[in-house]
């Protein structure tokens, strides 16, 4: 039964299949039913989040005329390649920062994989087939269907959907996993899955007024792109957006998540344009719903962003993969899917190019773990917290660096810090009490967010470019691309904005929520 369930749920969700969306329907010249373009009292915003889209392959695809839709938006909009992502640079953490305007210290979504100190349980939101098998398919499904939005996402932060609803504005979420709002919805589990599992037929959740999440809930009853990854695919998402446009029911704000480029980049590396070429055909479908592409810009603000970069991982597997089990083999490590035993000492949760390492036994010293990790030249730095002070060390630098929020130093984001020690560990430059970031943009706030994202004693470990952490059954991407780290190679993402000249106060993904609300409240 487990094998059948895995085939249906895990493989269909995690592995890209073939879709029959029809290349002819994607051609720029083909017309579908055109929507109305009469003027409206206020503009509407469509936020397209394209997983792992990056500046250089985007520009290359446009230059080679392989991405006419993205070229169109770029021609009619403003562009930056330096939007700073959240940390860790993993999808659910980034999504949480995007829709709450907070880092994980407030959103409480620490990463794709982490250890819940209260429940004494490893939490996964879907980090590879073998990890899911060991942690349990039912737990994984429960996390996707319920846990993200209704339990783990802090009730002390408000999402953009909740704020818009309070402003009497409507919103939609299409295939975004973090979507909490004020409206009750029922997610229906496909019958084929319930027949071979103990999952309930329905999950109750709350989201924006219009919620689409693959086969579990959708607006267009005729949307037939449900086989490939149970509807968690680009063809499904684009069909939902087209449905809203063609029926003139697009709300004031819509967020649409385009995911498949991420799989392509993981497999082929950051230089590939294949995923961009494919997703551009989907965007052409959207533009073709208008009488002319230019009509799409009338009373609509389009915002197109990435979520994180990916950096190349060395091809030589033995060198590229930092095996934390091997480095920390002297410790008793909690095994995936097993309850915490009395003699277990540490927990490892690898998030590609960053990792959390947890102390779960009083006999263990986080300082000693840090010193052991410091000997591996592939690790950029190691951080841990003592009381309220964050300590950072590196094998490449002498001494240590300590910091905390508040103090006499200010960074470019007008954030105040108290700092001490070797600032070169995080590539910081100080000038007259002003902090300037190098390889780790907004590094202090992002690391502070990760260190305060959860309870317990733990370390944050960040890899140098070219390397990736692995734990017991982590996925690996040697010869391809990976993200997760705080380095700029994983963190700086493109943004295209059409239809507004309102500047973004700070070029960070965590600042977009306020910027969007300021535009839409007028």
Automatic annotation (TrEMBL):
It comes from the Bacteria. Signal peptide: none annotated. Pfam families: Phosphodiest. GO terms for molecular function: hydrolase activity. InterPro entries: Alkaline_phosphatase_core_sf, Phosphodiest/P_Trfase. This is Putative AlkP superfamily pyrophosphatase or phosphodiesterase. It comes from Cytobacillus oceanisediminis.
């Amino acid at each position: 039964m487990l094998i059948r369930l895995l085939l249906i749920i895990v493989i269909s969700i995690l592995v890209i299949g073939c879709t029959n969306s029809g290349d002819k329907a994607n051609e720029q010249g083909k017309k579908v039913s055109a929507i109305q373009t009469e003027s409206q009292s206020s503009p509407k915003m469509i936020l397209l989040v394209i997983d792992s889209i990056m500046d250089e392959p985007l520009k290359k695809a446009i230059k080679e005329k392989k991405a006419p839709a993205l070229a169109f938006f770029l021609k009619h909009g403003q562009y930056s390649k330096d939007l700073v992502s959240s940390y860790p640079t993993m999808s659910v953490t980034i999504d949480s920062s995007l829709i709450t305007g907070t880092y994980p210290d407030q959103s409480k979504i620490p990463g794709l994989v982490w250890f819940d100190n209260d429940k004494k349980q490893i939490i996964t939101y879907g980090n590879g087939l073998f990890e899911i098998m060991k942690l349990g398919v039912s737990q994984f499904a429960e996390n996707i269907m319920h846990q993200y939005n209704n339990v783990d996402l802090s009730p002390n932060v408000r999402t953009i959907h909740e704020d818009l609803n309070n402003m009497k504005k409507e919103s939609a979420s299409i295939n975004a996993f973090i979507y909490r709002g004020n409206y009750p919805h029922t997610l229906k589990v496909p019958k084929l899955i319930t027949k071979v599992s103990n999952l309930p037929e329905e999950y109750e959740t709350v989201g924006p007024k219009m919620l689409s999440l693959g086969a579990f809930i959708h607006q267009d009853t005729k949307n037939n792109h449900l086989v490939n990854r149970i509807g968690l695919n680009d063809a499904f998402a684009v069909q939902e957006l087209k449905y809203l446009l063609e029926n003139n029911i697009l709300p004031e704000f819509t967020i649409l998540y385009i995911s498949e480029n991420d799989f392509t980049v993981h497999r082929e590396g950051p230089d590939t344009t294949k995923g961009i070429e494919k997703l551009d055909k989907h965007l052409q479908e959207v533009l073709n719903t208008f009488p002319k592409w230019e009509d799409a810009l009338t009373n609509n603000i389009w915002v197109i962003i990435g979520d994180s970069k990916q950096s190349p991982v060395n091809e030589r597997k033995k060198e590229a993969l930092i095996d934390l089990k091997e480095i920390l083999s002297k410790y008793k490590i909690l095994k995936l899917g097993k309850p915490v035993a009395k003699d277990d000492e540490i927990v490892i949760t690898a998030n590609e190019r960053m990792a959390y390492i947890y102390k779960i036994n009083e006999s263990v010293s986080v300082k000693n773990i840090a010193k052991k990790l410091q000997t591996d030249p592939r690790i950029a730095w190691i951080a841990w917290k003592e009381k309220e002070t964050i300590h950072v060390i590196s094998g490449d630098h002498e001494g240590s660096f300590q910091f905390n929020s508040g103090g006499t130093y200010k960074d470019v984001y007008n954030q105040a810090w108290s700092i001490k020690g070797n600032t070169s560990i995080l590539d910081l430059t100080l000038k007259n009490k002003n902090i300037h970031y190098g390889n780790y943009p907004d590094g202090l706030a992002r690391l502070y967010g990760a260190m305060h994202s959860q309870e317990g004693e733990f370390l944050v470990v960040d890899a140098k470019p070219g390397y990736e952490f692995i734990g017991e059954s982590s996925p690996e991407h040697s010869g391809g691309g990976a993200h997760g780290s705080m380095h700029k190679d994983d963190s700086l993402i493109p943004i295209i904005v059409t239809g507004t000249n309102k500047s973004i106060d700070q070029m960070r993904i965590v600042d977009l929520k306020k910027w969007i609300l300021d535009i839409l409240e007028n």
